[in-house]
Amino acid sequence: MAQSGQAVVIGGGIGGLTAAVALHLSGRQVTVLERARSLEPVGAAISLAPNALRALDVIGLGDEIRDLAAWQGDGGLRTPAGHWLARTGAATAARRFGGPLVLLHRATLIDRLAARLPAGTVRTGTAATVADPGDAGRPARVRLPDGELEAGLVVAADGVHSAVRRALFPHHPGAGYAGFTTWRVVIPLPGVEFAPHETWGRGRIWGTHPLKDGRVYAYAAAVGPAGQRAPDDERAELLRRFGDWHEPVPSVLAAARPGDVLRHDVHHIARPLPAFHHGRVVLVGDAAHAMPPTLGQGGNQAIEDAIVLAHHGDDLAAYTAARLPRTAAVARRAVRIARLNMTAGRARTAVRDASMAALSAAAPALFLRGFDGIADWRPPGDGVRPAGAGSGGRRKLRRDTAGNH
């Protein structure tokens, strides 16, 4: 199949914008259609592991993001009373996986990706659906409120409740509730010192981490029925659930305002899709493989998707073959971790904590083992490399013919 130059990306989140940048660098004319009125993302922060940073290297953004790394010294896993179950350090993690773990606000990443696209590429306030997925003999058609677009490639990055996914695979059950809800907050917290940590309680977890800009990112999760909301406000709900946990949890809650707290139920795709493409339409990110956030890999896998897609060009079957098994394996691991850290029974929680402490004492790198085979991923063929960088001209991508699939 000859490569067609027009690509349409439905969704202006992290996966969609990364795909747009990679496809633009490969020489395609790209249009990004975002339903929201702006690219301001829903959410707080995102953790980028070395696998995603290597993917961002392919589009020339990796080092810029690495410079935002804020984790220094030790961190690890704690109990609500503050006891350490497992400890590790930023340097240990970087040595194990070949690079740092970077936590940054989603808006920062969105802005830096969008800045790499030509003016006019992104159209906000534009809802889009796939009218015809196309095939080898005809382009795909995307329906807009004011007409249609034809494209040789359509990238659906429209999230966990993807309308494109439902249209392509109407018999698939789609995303379902994962059994727990999450809260997130990014706030200034001057004068409070703490080691980065995640804390596991009974059916509840909390994490607190510094950002490079001086703010703090905190997140929480708890088991419960879908659709529940606090009778007053979500900050008050966090106080009820976590107010007596170790510092800096009380300090974060004291500094937060009700409007600072975001709450979302977690949905995931429990049964993998049969493919990530149909016709000339391809799925990336949560639209393809939404997973629990317990490994922090949702956005990372979306970034990987985008780079692998650009590597394979119009060979969408090769993209599915490269991405479906990997993302399914990562999603299964995220589900297993969720079952572990969301354990609610008193006896099971005690056994879990004792086991974690004992294993950590025997193998100090235990806390990092969950990322083996994930954070050490490298782009196919050592990546779709920007060519001509620094030449003053537009960067183009080179597709390698052999790679790590």
How would you describe this structure to a colleague?
It is a single chain. With 405 residues, the protein is α/β, with parallel strands linked by helices. It has a domain at 6-74 and 92-172 and 274-343 and 364-398: 3-Layer(bba) Sandwich (FAD/NAD(P)-binding domain). 32% of the residues lie in helices and 25% in strands. It contains 13 helices and 20 strands. A 7-stranded mixed sheet has the order 5-4-13-14-15-12-16. A 6-stranded mixed sheet has the order 7-2-1-11-18-17. The chain has a 3-stranded antiparallel sheet with strand order 8-9-10. A hairpin with an 8-residue loop joins strand 19 and strand 20. Helix 1 runs parallel beside helix 5 and helix 10 (298-312) runs antiparallel to helix 11 (316-341). The longest helix is centred in the last third of the chain and has 26 residues, at 316-341. The relative contact order is 0.18.
Give the tags.
405 residues, alpha/beta, FAD/NAD(P)-binding domain, seven-stranded mixed β-sheet, six-stranded mixed β-sheet, 32% helix, 25% strand, disordered C terminus
Supply the number of helical segments. 13
Strand order of the largest sheet: 5-4-13-14-15-12-16
The CATH architecture name of the domain at 6-74 and 92-172 and 274-343 and 364-398 reads 3-Layer(bba) Sandwich
Question: What's the number of extended β-strand segments?
Answer: 20
Residues in helices, as a percent range: 25-40%
Largest sheet: 7 strands, mixed
In one word, what is the shape? globular
Protein structure class: alpha/beta
CATH superfamily of the domain at 6-74 and 92-172 and 274-343 and 364-398: FAD/NAD(P)-binding domain
Strand content: 15-25%
Could you list the spans in which at least 5 consecutive residues all have pLDDT below 50? Answer: 383-396, 398-405
